[in-house]
Structure formats: C-alpha cells, structure tokens
Amino acid sequence: MLLLILLIPFITGFTLLGVRNAAAVKVVALSSAILTLFLTVSLVFFLPATRFSVSWINFLGTDFSLGYDGISSIMLLLTNLLFPFIILAGFKHEQKQVPVLYALILFTQSALIGVFLAQNAFLFYVFWELALIPVYFILLLWGGANRRAITFKFFIYTLTGSLILLFGIIFLYQLTPSPHSTDFLAFSQLIIPANTQIWLFWILFIAFAIKMPVFPFHTWQPPTYTMASTQGVMILAGVMTKMGIYGALRFLFPIVPLGVLFWQNTVIVLSLIGVIYASIIAFRQTNLKKLIAFSSMAHISLMVAAMFVLNYYALQGLLFQVISHGVTIVALFYMVYSIEKQTGTLELPMMGGLKLHAPKMSVLFLMVVLGSIALPLTAGFVGEFLMITGLFHQSVWFALVGGITMVLGAIYMLYAYQRVMLGNKEVNYESKTDLKPLDYFFLLPLVLIILALGVYPQPIFNLVEQTVKSMQNLLTPATEVMSAWVH
Amino acid sequence: MVLLSFVFTAVLFFSLRSSGSVSATVTLFNWISIGGMNIPFAFLIDHLSLTMMLIITGVGALIHIYSIGYMHDDERVNSFFAQMNLFTFSMLLLVMGANYLVLFIGWEGVGLCSYLLIGFWFKNPAFNYAARKAFVMNRIGDLGFILGIILIFFTFKTVTFSEVFTQASTLSSGTTAITLITLFLLIGALGKSAQIPLFTWLPDAMAGPTPVSALIHAATMVTAGIYMIARSSILYNLAPITLNIIIIIGSATAIMAAITGLKQNDIKKVLAYSTVSQLGYMFIALGLGAYSTAVFHLTTHAFFKALLFLGAGSVIHAMSGEQDIRKMGGLRKKMPLTYFTFLAATLAISGIPPFSGFFSKDLILNQAFEHSILIYILALAGALLTCFYMFRLLYLVFFGDQRLDGAHPHESPGVMTIPLMILAVLSVFGGFLNIPSLFGGNSNFSTFLQTAVFSKTTEGLSMTTEIVLTLVPLSLISLVILFAYRTFVKKAVIPASDEASMSWIGKIIFNKFYFDEIYIFAFEKPFGFLSGFLFHKVENTVLDPAVDGIGKATSRLGSLIRKLQQGNMSFYLFAMVAGILLFIVFILIV
Amino acid sequence: MSALIFTTVLGIILLYLGLTKNKTILSPVAITGLLITLILSLKDWGLDSKYFHDMIIFDNFSIAFNVSMIIITIIIFLFGIDYYQRMELHVAEQYALMIFALTGAFLMTSFSNLIMLFLGIEILSIPLYILAGGKKASFRSNEASFKYFMLGSFATAFFLFGIALVYGASATFYLPEIKIYLAQFHGNLPPMVMIGLLFIVIGVAFKVAVAPFHFWSPDVYEGAPTLVTAFMATVVKTAGFAAFYRLLCMGLLPLPVPLEKALWVMTGLSLLIGNLAALRQTNFKRLFAYSAIAHSGFIMLAMLSQHDTSASVLLYYTFVYSLATVPLFIIFILVKRASNGLETLYIFQGLYKKKPWIAVFTTILLVSLAGIPPTAGFMAKYQVFVLSISQGYLAISIFAILMAVVGVYYYFFVVREIYTESDHLHPIVVSKLNAGIIILCGIAVVVLGIFVWKLPI
Asked: CB-CB: which of A100, A129, A152 is closest to C416?
C-alpha cells in the first residue's frame, strides 16, 4: 500500500512523457493525483498501520523501509490533498511542454511522499534531494522574469543546507553501534553527549531552517515565490515548507533533545523575529505575490516558534496548522493567479476596483484572506490559537509577539484585499469576466476544507494524538538531563 | 428572518421563565478536545444572554425592516442583507456562547461583519480605509482577549463559563492571575466597545450605511465589551485594580467623547461620539461593579441610540445623502414623524424623566456618587454635555429655516417610519423595566439579571440623597436645554465652517483632540517607515547581499586562484619546485 | 598477464592496420580486442597470479581497476568511431597510442615494485605526450603536448630521485620489504627516507593532478583533442589513483605522520583550488580540468581515511566518475561542432530545445558528477564521507562538503545553460550510436546509484 502510494505518481509521471495530447496529459495527471489522495485517505483514516521494508544497501545499514506515524500521516495527507489542486491549477490556461511539466509535478509528489514515508535517514535524504530536482526544473523552465539567477540561488542555498544535513546523518550513522544503521529508530536510541548535541543540532537544523525558512535564512524565498509559476509556488509554499517542519520534528526532537533544549530559546526568538519582520515587510510590498510570500514566511515562522516551545498544545496546533496553512496558501496563490489573469499585473498600485467586475471572485478572495488571518471558524484560527497557547506556556512575551501576527496579518492582508478588489479605479483590465466554473471547482473545495476544519478539527487532532504524546515523553527526561548539565 | 428569530427568542424567553430554571446549556459537539483542553461548541442561555438576545433580535428586526426602505435603491441590496444577517448570527453566537472561545468566535465574527458593512460602499477609498481601521483596532483588542482566554485556560484548565466561575469564586481577591486575566479581557473590551485608547475607529465607522451604524455601531456590537465584562463579573469582582482602571477609562472616554461631540457637524459623527460617550458610561457602571446597571443602560441605549441613528438615516435619506447639519434646518415641518421620534430619543438620551435614559443614567449617577464624588461630577458633566450637543443637533436639524437650496426633503416611507415609531415607544417606556424603589418600583430588570450577573453589593443611599441626586441633574439639564435653545434657535447660530475663526480649544475639539493625527504620527507612519526600512535596508542591503556575498567572495577567491594559471611554463615549473620545497620543509618540521 | 600481453599486441596490430588506410575497421578491431582483454582479465579473477619475481601481482584489486579502465576505454572508442571519422590521417596511431597507454595503466595497478611503477607511469605518459599534440595543425594542441611533456618529465625526475633515495636507505624496490624496513623506525624516519617517500608520492600526485601539482592539467586538458582529454580525465586518473592507493597500502602503511599531514594538505588544496577555480570558469574543458582536480581531492579523502573498504570506494568513485565524464566530453564535442568551434559553457544553450532527450541525459550525468541522489555520483560521495567521518576526520569532511556545494554550483551552471533557450549556428547532429551510448551511460549512472553501491574487488 505504501509502495503503491509512492509509485503511482512516479509511474504516471513517466507514462506522461510519452503522451502527446496536452489535455489528456492533464486529465491523466489529475486522475493519478486523485487516486493517490483516495488511497492516502483510506490509509490514514481507515486502514491499520502498515510498514514496507525490503533490504537495500545492507553494508551501509540502510533498508528501503517505508512507514508512517501521526506526523507522517499529516504530511502525507497534506501533500496528496494539495497535488490534485496543484495539477488542477494548470487546467485554465495553455502551458508549454505540458507532458514534461506534469511529469515533473508528479515526480515531485512522489519524492515528497517518499520523504514523509522514509523510515531511515538515508532514504529520507535521498527523497529530500530528489524532491528538489524536479522543482528546480519547474521553476527554471516555467518561471517568470529573472528566473535563471533566482532559481540558481534557491537551488544552491537549499542544497548547501542539505549537504550539511548529510554530514549530520553520516555522523550519526557512525555513532550507532556496529553494525551501523541509518534507521531513525537507531538514531533515536543513541545517547549522544550534551556537548556534541549542541553543535550537532545546527548541523541537522540548518537544512530545515533554510527550507522552512527561518529568519535569517529566508532570503531566497520571496524572490523565488515571486518568480515561480503558480504551480511551482504552490508546491513550494504549500508542501515544501512543510518538509522543513517535518524534518525538524523527525531529526531534532528524538535525536538531539538536549541540543533542542539548549537552543530552544534562540530558535524561538529567531522565529519570532521572523514573524514580526516578515509581517512588517509584507505591508510595504507592491507586488501581490511577494506580499503573500512574506505573509507565508510570517506564518511559517510562527509555526517554528511553536514547534520549539515543546508544548503539547503547541505541537498539536503546529501539526494542525500544517494542513491549514498548506490549504490556505494554495488557495491564496490561486487567487493571485486568477487576479493576474484578470488584471494582467501583480503590482498593487496598478490595481483596484476589481470587485466591480468580479464580485464573486472578490467574495472568495476575502474568504481565503480571512482564513489566512485566522478568523475563528476557519482552520487557521484553531491552529494559531493552540500555537499561541503553547507559546504562552513558555512565556507571555512569546505569546504576545506571536499573537501580533493576528494584528499585522490583518493589516497587510486587508490592505492587499482593498488594493485589489475595492475602490473605484478605472483600470483597463485585460478581461472583465468573473470566475468560471473551473475556478469554483478549484476554490470551493479548498474554502470548504478551511471552514470544515475550523468548525470540526477533531479528526486531525486524533490523527496525531499518539505521536505528539510520545514526543512529549521523549523530551521529559531530556529536560532533566539538561538542567543537571547546566548546573 | 431576524423577526423570526426574535419570535423564537421571545418564545425561549418565556419558556425559560416558565420552566423556572435560571440557565440552560446546549452542547452541539466537542470543538477542540485534546489532552487537558476540552472546548465544546456549546450555548448557554441564561438571563443575561436572553436579555442580549432580545435586544439583538428585537432591535435588529426593526432595523432590518427599516433597511428595506433605506437600501431599496442600492444595487447590492442582496449582499447587504446577507451581511446584516451574518452579523446577527455572529452577535447571537457571541452572547449565546457557553465558553470564552465560542464567545470569541462571535466576537471576531461581528468584527468581520462590521468590516464588511463599514466598507459596504467599496468604491470610496476612505470608507475602505475606515473599515480596515476598525478591523485592525478591533484585532488589537482581540489579541488581548485571546491572551486573556489562554491565561484563563492555564489558570482554570477550562474556558467554560460555569466551570471558570465556580473555580474563581474560591480564589481570593487581587490574585495576579485574575488581575492579568481581567486586564487582558479588558483590552478586548476596549477595542470592541470603542474606549480610549482604541476608540478612533468608531467615528470613522460611520462610513457604513446608516442602518449599519444603528445596528452595529450603536445598539449591539459595540456593547459586546460590556456584555463580556458583565459576563465575567465574578472575575472582575476579584480584581479591584482592574475595576479602578475601568472607571478611569470609562469616565475619561465619556467626557472626552462628549466634548468632541460638541463641535462635530456631521450628523452621524455627533451620534458616533455620543455612542462612545455612552459606552463610557456603561464602563463607569461596570467599574463600579454595577454590572446589571450597565446592562440596563445598554438596553435603553440600544433603544434610543438605534432610534437616533435611524432618525438620522431618515433625515439623510430625505436630504439625498447630505450629512452636514449646517446645511439642514427646518425639517420639523417636512418630516414630522421623524422629528417626533427623534425628539423622543433626544429626551431619552438627555435623561429627562420619564424617558428610558433617565432611569438608567440616574442609576449610574447614583452609584458613582456612592463610590466617589469626583466620578459623580465627571459623569454629571458628561451628561450635561450630552444634553447640550444632542439638543444642538436637534435644533440645527429640525428648527430654523432650510439652509440647503434645491433640496426637497420629504417624509420617509412607512417601512422606515414604523420602526422609528416602535423604537420611540421603547425609548419612552423602556425605562419602566427597572423602576427603582424611589419611584415605587422593584428594579425588575436588575433582579432578573441577578442569576447571571454578580454585581457588587452596595449599601444603598438614603431616600433624601436619592431625591437630591435626581433633582440636581434634572435642573441642570433643563438649564442646558434652554441655553441650547437660545443659541441655536433664537440666535440661529450656525457653527463656523472654517477652522481659522475658532479659538485654540475649539480647534482641538473640532479636530477630535488630534487623536487620529497622533495615531497616524505615532503608529502608522513609523510602521510604514519601518516596513520600508526593513525591506530596503535590512532585507535588500544586509541579509540578502550577505548571502550573495558569501557566494561572491567564494567566486572572487576562485578568480584569484585562476589568476595563477596564466599558461606560463616557467611559472608552472617555479610553482612546482616551490611546492616541492615547501613540502620538504613541511615534512621535516612536522 | 595474458591480458597485458594481448593489449600490447593489439596496439601493434592497430598500428599495422593503419597502413591499410581503412579507417572503418579500426575501431571495431580495437573494441573487439578490448573485449577480449576484458575476458582475459576476468579469467585471472581470484588467482593472485604473480610474475617477474613478484614484481607484478594481478590480484583482485588490479583486475577490478583494469576492468573498469577497459570498459571506459571501450566507451571512448565507441565514441571515437564518430569522432575520428572526420580526421584524415594517423587515426590508427591514435587508437594504438591509447592502447599502449592502457598497457601502462595495467602495470600501474598491479605493481609491487617501485621500478614497475616507474615503468607503468612512463608507458602511460609517453603516448599521452604524443596524443596531447594530436592536432598537429593546432597551436594549442602542440603547446599542450609540450607543456605536458616538460612538466611530466620534471615530475618523473623527482619520482626517480625519490626511488633512489628510498633504495639507498632500504636497499630494495619491493614495497612489502620497504614496509618492513619502515616499520622498524616506529614513525621516526630518517630525513632522507622521508624526502624520498615524499618525492615518490609527489611523482604520483602529479599524474593524478593533485594540487599543488595540478598546474599542467587545465592547459593540457584544454589544448589536447577532446577525446584524448576524456581519456586523460578518466583512464589516466583511475590508473593514477589505483597506483597511489597500492603504493600507500602495500608500502607505506601506517603512514608516517609528516607524510600523512602532507597528503592531507594536498587533499585540502585540491578540494579548494579545484572547486573554486572552476567556479568562474567559462571554458568547458578547463572547467572539467578543475573539476577533475576537485574530484581528486574527494578521492584522496577516501584514500587517506584508511579502512577495509577504502579500495572499494576508490574503485566505485573512479568508475562512476569516468562513466559520467566521458559522455559529457562527447556531448561537448557535439555542441561545439554546432557552434563554430567555440568552447564556452554558453554553447550548451538551447540543447534542451533541440535535443530534449540528450539534454535530459546530460543533466543526469552532470547531476551524478555533482553528487546528487539518486545517481551513482551521490553514492560515491556518500561512501567517501562515510569513510572519512567514521575515521573521525570531521573538519576536513565538513570542508569537503562545503566544497561539494561549490561543485554543485558549477555543474548546475552548465545544467542551467542547457535549459536556456537560444539558437545554435548549426544544427546539433548526434549519431544514433553516440546517442545510444550517452543514454546508456546515463541509465547506468542511475542504475548504479540505486542498485549497485559497491563493485567487486
């Protein structure tokens, strides 16, 4: 079953390369993604837990083993939920080299699934890099202005982090008792001296910090998002940022708990700086896409801060927010895309009064914006509430700073909404049509998910309950060791 | 629809009455249930929420009916009613929630509707700005509120009202946690109920259609803060510091807003400042621990302020959208119905017996007197100012001659005037709900609320003091009315339109104490500047180039290394020999 | 041994075939000959046959490296069919010289005596000096040949001097005996022996272009005919490292501390200079020269992290590296032809548009060189790092990893050009054979990366 989920997008991707008809390619890609989603949902919610393992590189202690726990389930669910939409986003307009594009998208999906299913660090790393390659090409070949330089920077930057992570993995590998192993299980059973954990923490974390991104490792992100094609940016913002979160949860907490405790406040402070920094900067952006890029960074930073408070509620909130943010940001970027198609520009000062022509679009845009600023009864609220609760547990100030996103988010998102939709500007837009049925097909399910999860978040909580609990148990002894070590 | 829900509420009201229980809780499902956190999606119906529900649905229904007439020309009338209904829904959610988080849903929901409705005429950028301002200011308050809720959760391990209050009653007064909680909640209330320092959004909110101003920015939403504090009365009773802060903020707001109201020329702005001021009164009552009095004033205020706004709307409608009172005048004859209802409301707000405002305001004044004479004087001054600017408004609009050429004011249609009349009746007689013992009543309203709201017990004043306390304001108010009459009707003074002719105090008042300017100067400008600074200076000249710099430095080093490679044979040989020699030295030393 | 002899004969046969002026039969004969050599080599597997008073030992180590070099040479010859079609004269000599060089390479993998090593190096080098000057009309080619010869003989001189010094002290050329001789000092070698060993090491280091003895390589790579460059970058390098490893393993372990440190310095310098100098390089062949230096650095890392598996990693790394490098040089020739002989990286522009499949496989090959999964290049680097980190060389490993990032940078610079749209002056012509081999190599790189992580040794 796990292998099936991993292979369906991959094989479909290959098959697509031989298909000539653009429309057929898109339909096949979509069906594959929907099938994967269907399998994922039944796997996560209905079927008993399974594992898949075949022996692989024996002499390097690495099996090809797939499996999942609560965190993986969340990530898997998100990935496979978003990919049908990401594919659907391309239905509206003509694209060049359709078979290649959709093959690359499906390869990305497959690699991401691999990342979230991998049960050993080596396999994780392989999929981690593997996900980067197709994305690089999606950005390079279908990107916007100045794409050569920007994608290059993105690629090199993230790869730097990855290679440092590789060092960490090998380092851990040779620490394991002979015969060495790269299994996460073996890693988490290691007892690493505190001094080592302190530097090892950064070796492992830097890759994730760049991917998420955490301030000040974020500089690749805004230009990349701005330049990327709609589908590219959806993959980046919707799913790939979550890779960083997933990796951090997978590597840091079980393996270097003392390092985590040692750097806890540093990372929280950095993230909170990121929250405020990105929120403030977002306000001055004239490019709608860039504004949303910064907003995404602010949200992700809050999630990182919540991750590091090591609190039950924060972790629950974080994992919930993973889904919520993914869905919301994809919907947001789709709106950006529709708006760009309508107005022919992304520059806010050039826009205005779109509501006059497209009232329905305006309503949906507003709903997505509200989801993004965490209005109650949207999914964003549940996540942010829990995360801020967790932050509060650590320090009132953390909660206060984290909570400021609520205010700042409202400022810049509503500013953007106003600039685009409201006002009475007589702009000579390229087209004056409202949303088409296809757009509803895309947006309504997403908006419904946002609302449904806001009203009834419990299924997601239940999914991760066990894992979060065990994670907590993991860290409790570490806290004692840490306090003993400090004194 | 809203009418229907009013009927349902009324049924609910009577059924609860007849069943004899004081409260009922309905749990729909568990909203968030993880670990020790259990937040059900539950509703609590008790006397306090019933009161609020009756106001919301009752006044709401009237305003909806009125809107049929008021908005009939608007092309987006559908979305108007949709948003109004969404508002009613959220507001009901707010008052019916059985825990703080459900309350918060409604709380933010009404904020959203307020945003939507203020910016209803979205073609006007200023309106959109006002809407955004309202939302953001509310959000600042909401941040405090949510932190308060989280603190409640950590203190009591629950956010359900009944459980929180049961546990709280065992705590001693003045605990840090309780004080912090109440302060956080207060911040929320300040935002929603437009108190200093978060009040500037409310006057701007008048950009919305007038029924919106009536419903949201007078009768219901802005009173949510009052409701929430009254709901948390048990907590607040335990936090004397917070109560004192509430009194200070309330009286400062009441006076400041009343003064500002004196110089405003926009009919809706005057009413807006009046609302802020009246909310200040309610805060004073809350701060005094007289929660049921606050709710009572809330109720009467809902009647007469809604009426005032709807009346103003009727006037604006008649004047084809003109809102400047200096251009009105003489409408008494053209619009008698509007005039009489407006007059009733003005009398009510000024506190003339037996109109409703008299009873509620009188109660507040009495309680203020009990607490401290200073607050009493402040509150009284506020009342007099209120009286003055309301009559100024009344006289300028309805008396004298018509000052705008070419306008043909006419009485509004029945759908608009009938709600006016119903509200007028309520404004006139609403006070009888809670006749104090002085007039032989038995304070029905306060007694009714006692099961849900826990006011601080007061020893009560002697009969003579009470009579004096009733008569002194009354006589002063009459004097003020007379003065206003002389100024605006006899002398027919029209407020100056250019600022230059005003005294400096006049200028300050006219400019609303420069609050907006200060906020722009202190927050908006620096924020924009900071945003630009961070983006251009930090992001684009420090962080980004730092990353690029590593790359550039590396590649520069690469070029440097490449320089060694010139293709010159003798250099290669030299380098090779040098390398060998260095290695010889190296291995011999090491 | 039969393989060695057969190869020599094959070279002579090819020379005579040159007299027939029939170019078309040359490469089939050469390839068939090499295939026979391959089989002959494999027959010796596991026999540990020793010859000439144990001066040559064909153990599994040498056979594995020989086989890998034969395979690479076959690939080069396969490409040669197309490449030499355009050349008028002396094609047979080119084939023959490469075969002779291969013979030298065989010696280098199987020596156990310093004299044999010297012979091997010279037999390998002398044909190369000629091959580098293969384009007689080209000024650059002649220059390359001359430079290579000059510097090469210089290095050889040092190498010989080193042998002499060591012989003077130990009175033997046999590595096992030298080992025993060295062991008695417990690390504190007399200065003369130390310098002697250093000179020997430097002599070999020069052949594999380890910094700071790399100066010849960019110029020679650039000037030599591209196919020869490919040969130099792959087969010669493989042979050099096999010899290097054998030298260290059979004769010098445990390494005297100063010598080990000197080697670490060379490793670090190779990584640094190779990668950084490649960063701004716009000439494709020079870029690959530097990248070859950088790869030398990684291989040194594996070699110095002494472990049972070092030899296997070494073989895997060199083979995988060669497998990716040879087709890339061929692709370079193809796009160069389409661009009036320009050699910059920009000539790769538009490759994706014109020949998407070739472009995809070029990308795979570059990805492999850059060391990104799931290619064999990644597995090779991974194993190198596993070795070095397990042996506790953390600092240099981190440094090497950072340098690997730089490596990714310049390889992806080429990748980026491939996918940039631009028009060529002439159409890119790829013969079916060439396309087939390129694709085969690409697939091999991926299959090796996923299913084969270790070559038998």
From this structure: A152
Residue with tokens 């008073």: C53
Average predicted confidence (pLDDT) for chain C: 90
pLDDT digits (tens, 9 = 90+) for B114-166: 999 988 888 888 888 889 889 999 999 999 999 999 999 988 888 998 888 88
pLDDT for B499? 62
How far separated are the first and last CA of chain B, in Å rounded? 94
* Same domain assignment for residues A275 and A395: yes
Question: How many of the other CB atoms lie within 10 Å of CB of A485?
Answer: 15
Of the three residues A255, A272, A302, the one that is the final residue of a domain is A255
- CA–CA dist B337, B314 (Å, integer): 10
Burial class (CB in 10 A: 0-12, 13-18, 19+), B11: exposed
- Averaged over A350-354, what is the pLDDT? 81
How close A129 comes to chain C (CA, Å)?
A: 6
Nearest CA in chain C to B551: C406
CA–CA separation, B2 and B61 (whole Å): 5
Domain co-membership, A304 together with A157? no
Does residue A185 sit in the same domain as residue A311?
Answer: no
**A147: containing domain:** 1-55+62-255
B535–A contact, CB cutoff 8 A: yes
Q: How many CB pairs under 8 A join A and C?
A: 69
Instruction: Name the residue among A125, A140, A170 with its Cβ closest to that of C416.
Output: A140
Residues A180 and A324 in one domain: no
Q: Are residues A200 and A239 in the same domain?
A: yes
Write down which residue in A255, A273, A292 finishes a domain.
Answer: A255
Apex A268 CA angle, A263 and A269, nearest 5: 100
Q: What would the pLDDT profile of B354-369 be if each residue is shown by its tens digit?
A: 788 888 888 888 888 8
B575·C279 Cβ contact <8 A: no
C247 to B206, B532, B588, C244, C340: CA distances (angstroms): 90, 64, 21, 5, 45
Q: How many structural domains comprise chain A? A: 2
Judged by CB atoms closer than 8 Å, whether chains meet at C150 and B569 is answered as: yes
In this prediction the pTM is 0.90
Residue-range definition of the domain harbouring residue C322: 255-457
* Residues paired with residue B218 on neighbouring β-strands, in sequence order: none
pLDDT tens digits, residue range B223-261?
899 999 999 988 898 888 899 999 999 999 998 888 888
Nearest Cα residue in chain A from C395: A167
Alpha carbon distance C225, C101 (integer Å): 16
| pLDDT recorded at residue A37 | 93
Angle formed by the axes of helices C91-110 and C2-17, nearest 10°: 170
Closest alpha carbon within chain C to A96: C353
Q: How many domains does chain C have?
A: 1
Q: What is the pLDDT of residue A484?
A: 67
Residue B21 has pLDDT above 60, yes or no: no
Cβ of B108 and A312 within 8 Å? no
The pLDDT score that the predictor gives to residue B9 is 63
pLDDT of A418 higher than 80: yes
Q: What is the DSSP string of C57-98?
A: EE-HHHHHHHHHHHHHHHHHHHHHHHHGGG--S-HHHHHHHH
Phi/psi for B42 (5° steps) reads -130, 150
- Return all residues near B66 (Cβ < 8 A) that are at least 6 apart: B211, B214, B310, B313, B415, B416, B419, B420
Give A125-143 pLDDT, tens digit per residue.
Answer: 999 999 999 999 999 888 8
SS3 A430: coil
